[in-house]
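Chapter summary example.
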Amino acid sequence: MKYNEKIAKRVAEGTTAKLNFDYSCNRGHLFGEYHLHTIFNEIISSNVDNDNHEVHGGYAHPLLQSKGGTRGRKQEIDFAVIHRRDRTIYIAAEIKWAGSSHCSIESIFKDLLRLQIIANKDKDVICFFLLSGREDNINSLFDDKILSPGMRSMFVVPANNFNINRSPKNFPLSNNPDHQDRINKLLRRTRNNFHVTLPTSIRTLLTDTRLSAFDNGRFKSYSWVVQAVP
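The structure predicted for these 230 residues follows.
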């Protein structure tokens, strides 16, 4: 297993374990995106060399910004791990809490686009997307046709919550035989948020889910590594 898969897998497993632990400690009322960000920060900080790296939340990645500069809020990713000395990006991550008003197909699509832009431009950066939440909210999200389990989904979703597909999934954004109309609508709504050339496809690899999305678990987490398109 490559290190990029290992750290993304560890974050998903640790997040699920912490959610179930916190729920057992009667902290379920705290659950949401803010709590998820806190868990993510704790796990990722424990799995990098803190003498040489620092974790940033809400990071305005240079690759996502307009060269001429624009008014308004800059394009940010949820988390970035940055080398203290040369300021290079080590890890770029987007996370979503299923059931939140911020967790929609459109917002997930934008997250993946941002990570794909970074992965394509800098192949040394570890890029991954984390989805966590209650099992019923995640399953409800997966009911959408563009995410439903199968070869035509935007990324691999295991039908039985157990990942046996170890191959990357390439989701073309043009000439897509199954979802082009939907993709065009998503692109029209998101294109103005980007000031760079958009990728031609989204390429993801679902990490091993046996511990992060086990059967009958109250809370589940999935992580997808976003890979550079060859």
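To summarize the output: The chain has a mean pLDDT of 88.
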